[in-house]
What we know:
By secondary structure, the protein is α/β, with parallel strands linked by helices. Helix content is 48%, strand content 15%.
Amino acid sequence: MKILTNGRVVLSASDMTAVSDCEWAFVRRLDKGLGHSITLPANTDGMLKKAAELGDVRERKILARYHELYPGDVVEIADARYYPSAVNADESFIAFKNERREETLVALAKRSKVVFQATFFDGEFQGLADFLVLHEDGYYEVFDAKLARKAKVTALLQLAAYADQLLAAGIPVGPRVHLILGGGQETSHKLSDIMPVFLKRRSRLRRIIDDRVAHKTGGGGAVEWNDADYAMCGKCPACEEQINQRNDLLLVADLRLSQRKKLRAAGINTVAELANSVGPVAEMMAGTLDTLRAQAQAQVRSAELPEDQPPYYMVDRPEGLDIIPEPSDGDIFFDFEGDPLYEEGGLWNLDYLFGLVDARNNFHAFWAHSIPEEKKALIAFMDYVQAKRTAHPGMHIYHYAAYERTHLLQLARRHGVCEDEVDQLVREHVLVDLYPILKRSIRVGSPSYSLKKIEKIYDPLAHGGDGVVTAADSILEYNKYRDLVEQGHTGEAQAQLADLENYNKEDCESTRKLRDWLLAERTGPGHVLVEEVPQREDFDDEAEPLEVALGALIEGVELADRTPNDTAVALAIAALR
């Protein structure tokens, strides 16, 4: 989006994506550009920057392939990323865009086989198409390169925007548009299916802009939070800023936008108001409302604590802890470090570090810096696990959240090794995810139940130093490591790896401490902080019929012999009580 000094707004294809992601954030940025005195949160997302860099590299690789296929018949339009000068910026901007548009039209008129970075500009829209490719039937087809592994609606809308510009210029356009995805595959899509959606979205976007320009001209102020005219996502930096400032309901852990709408209709707008509320809420189930209220109450209590104190918590469903296996000397506590931006031979994502600590807190690391090395690391890790299982048949592998289980299965399929062994770990419940156990047993006064948020309860000094402290940090730092290796800075590269290893080790140790804390809350006298729950006057000591029916399904089944279905039934029974 480019806002000229006369208030005219020039759209780009990426604006279609931005307004689809979060209308409110787009309008906020638009209002800022129109001159409203507001501040926007700084863009500190290093992942986006790195992804953009990788996207540029990938475009150049595709361009090189086209040069090989069609030597002398590939036209590259000069870089149209424009930075206006301080003098006559608007005139320079318009002149620059018009020049690049003319270059594009000349290349198309000459029937060049491929046009790279084709520039479009009509006074209201500017855009750069990655590749326009001449079909043998005489029309041009639009190709866009994306790092994503799947076609997304927003990417298709961008393709339609470029096709629309070609049609407006009288250039024949093919019936299909194409995405070159991160995995290397190409997907084709009917333009006739996409164009109506694009036209509708563009009309909505133009209406938003016209309304905001007229609003500003008429002396109106900047868009306010909760403006019903604009949908918000609740997750982007612009939304998060407002959510934090206003103690918004979306701070409540696991509260969804649809639930927020129902609560606001009932006059409940903040975490504190939800915590103090009573009575039913229209169209919301009583059990769901009770859960959200309890979570809000826990977060209010945490907010009352000093900042250096861990969050408030209570074990309000102690039976959920019964699922934790008894400790074994062979237990290990496991954590992957992965790089989703890594690509090799058409394969994406590299799990570059398999880290674990054993029951004695000894750390073991299995490194992989390429896809073949990842296969070796998987085999070495599984050999270690099988040796542990032989020596300690009752051992378990503890992890936090589903990544480890999911990726072990994916890696076994990717490399065609250890598939039976990994499947056996799943079937025999050797892998134990502590995240759902925590969620189903303990109420933590935190907006997030991520390991970094809750570990202050059982390990107050956790991650207190400098270095890598988040998963996003680890991805960026690993990419820095690879850059340092490529540049020949061996010493600095090894220091990067040491920092990443320490981060992984801390997470593994934290998982062990979490397991031990949960066991203590289950068995330690005085540790279970169950608060008295007010009883309904019509409380019936007899079990509900559904509870009785579910109980019959697992009657006589020992904990160690439970299947995943048995575990699900046991958790359902616990939820009913």
